[in-house]
Design a protein that fits this description.
single chain; mainly alpha; 74% helix; elongated; 0% strand; 193 residues
């Protein structure tokens, strides 16, 4: 007994193969039809568009959020992530100074709102001071006390001083104490060494 097919089977197979049409015709007469491609329906497109618009709106609301808002913790988490993704201490310092300026703007808006967010003012002042201290620490680690960094630090101190001093009359006594402590701290930053 041989391991291959019988001679009759081979002869029949050879005849059938010789009678088959060329390859182009074979593709037209496939035994198994091709699978239909799934169609993307209107619902799927609308769902994708809605999700994209929702993500953009959530990003805008997060960026514009204020202390006490729903998206504010997400804003602070995004800032923290960007801070930790910074490539070097100089970039961390620049980001921290920007975040401190943002906290000062938030304090100013909180003071201007009539929604009774006085407890948030003190927290935001504290966050502003912590952010500024972080910036100074990063800047110190770089040991970058050249003319450019000294000028940036002086500009930051002047801007913060001007902004915070303008808000002092609208603060209560406890917040004024925190703000004055912050002003004393930043005045020491710009002092000549």
């Amino acid at each position: 007994m041989a391991g291959g097919p019988r001679l009759e089977f081979r002869a029949r197979l050879r005849e059938q193969l010789m009678e088959m049409p060329p390859e182009e015709d074979l593709q037209e007469r496939q035994v198994f039809p091709s699978r239909p491609r799934p169609r993307v329906g209107l619902f799927s497109r609308l769902l994708c568009a809605t999700l994209a618009i929702s993500m953009v709106m959530a990003g805008i609301l997060t960026y514009e959020s204020m202390p006490g808002d729903t998206f504010y913790p997400l804003k602070r988490a995004a800032e923290s992530t960007l801070f930790h993704l910074s490539s070097d201490d100089a970039e961390r310092a620049d980001r921290s100074f920007d975040y401190a300026e943002t906290r000062a703007q938030e304090v100013e808006e909180l003071l201007g709102s009539n929604q009774g967010k006085n407890d948030l003012i003190g927290e935001t002042l504290q966050a502003m001071e912590e952010t500024t201290r972080s910036a100074v620490t990063s800047l110190t680690q770089v040991r970058r006390r050249d003319a450019k960094s000294a000028g940036e630090l002086k500009r930051f101190v002047q801007k913060q001083r001007h902004q915070i001093e303008g808000m002092l009359p609208r603060m209560d006594a406890e917040d004024q104490k925190k703000a004055n402590g912050y002003l004393t701290y930043i005045d020491g930053l710009a002092a000549p060494n």
